[in-house]
Amino acid sequence: MPKRYSLNKEKIKIILLEGIHKSATDFFLANGYTNIESIPNALNDGALKAKIKGANIVGIRSRTKVTKDILHAAEKLFAIGCYSIGTNQVDGHAAKMLGIPVFNAPFSNTRSVAELIIAECILLLRNIPLKNAAAHQGKWLKSASNCFEVRDKNLGIIGYGHIGSQVSILAEALGMNVYYYDIVKKLNLGKAVACSSLDDVLSVSHIVTLHVPETLLTRNMIGERELSMMRKGACLLNASRGTVVNIPALVRAIRSGHVLGAALDVFPDEPASNSDPFVSELQQFDNVILSPHVGGSTIEAQENIGTEVSEKLVKYSDTGATIGATNFVQISLQPNYNAQRFLHIHKNEPGVLKEVNYVFTSKGINIAAEYLQTDPDIGYVITDTDSQLSSSILQELKAIKGTIRVRMLY
User: Fold this and answer.
1) Gap between the Cα atoms of 141 and 169, Å rounded
2) pLDDT in tens, 50-88
3) What is the helix (H) or strand (E) element at residue 47, kind and residue range?
4) Which CATH architecture is the domain 11-109+299-328 placed in?
5) Which of 76, 193, 395, 403 is the most exposed place for a label (fewest CB within 10 A)?
């Protein structure tokens, strides 16, 4: 017999922003969640605060910025879904300290981004962007000058993760020689060659493609010095994060002819909506492909992302499982409908678990199972008890020193 949840699923308020694919809504509906509001665009800070004030779950893409200030205004929020690869649009630490796990989709748009990179490799080496711009102006540039096959050219991949390794497979199938660099040792696929430094992969490659997260280490990692390390006539591709490339330095390298061409899908400053203007110093160059952060924007990828993130959110809401959360300790477990389940998120301080257990044992209640994970900041304990307690017990659990958040699932 299905277990009755302490908070009926119909009452769990879900807000989905930025036109998230309907597969997300479909997954929630299929699992009993009906209180769903879908909004086609991002919201400014004031509107976002007002909208998510009463939300339990919020889903966003890359344009919505969930800051510490906004998190403190979301009084009922217990989970965030980033329907994207990255989660840098959310203050993950602030969310963690409020007991809010953040989930994303690191795999679902991998193929879409990889295919775009391969297409751009071919277009740039054939000098198509320049010839396309000329044809639109009535000029006929039929010439083989600066036009090359990708076969037997060296592709340098910086960041050999989910996308970088997929690019590696597709590039090798086209006959390219793949070199890669990653700060973490990775198993090479096919005949890909690991380079020992960033400089090594820059100097050997005809095309360099970037697939790294946004961190302090990657901010402006491709600047004037790094561009000068690239072989003359090489091309640069960036579909990772806009802050990874120093744009003024790239402008100078393209203007001088040292860099033959470039393709960028991400930028340091991006419009908040399709109606806002886009301005970049790179717009002056016909040999540069500029695309509006659409690496993962295919129907297939968006459908997969909608399902992947919603599935993680439903599992957390239904069972407390945090597998796939980017800012939280990881616990995976199945529902136990023969017991009553409590979630207790607290600061990682001595004695909290003892106090949690005492709340139950002092009432003569048997603890049927218990799961605990900690990191330097928080502890997360899931307790299954042989009981039928009312929600009033939550006040006792909340009163424990160091408590961040408490939920009774069923």
Assistant:
1) 33
2) 999 999 999 999 889 999 999 999 999 999 999 998 898
3) helix 45-52
4) 3-Layer(aba) Sandwich (3.40)
5) 395
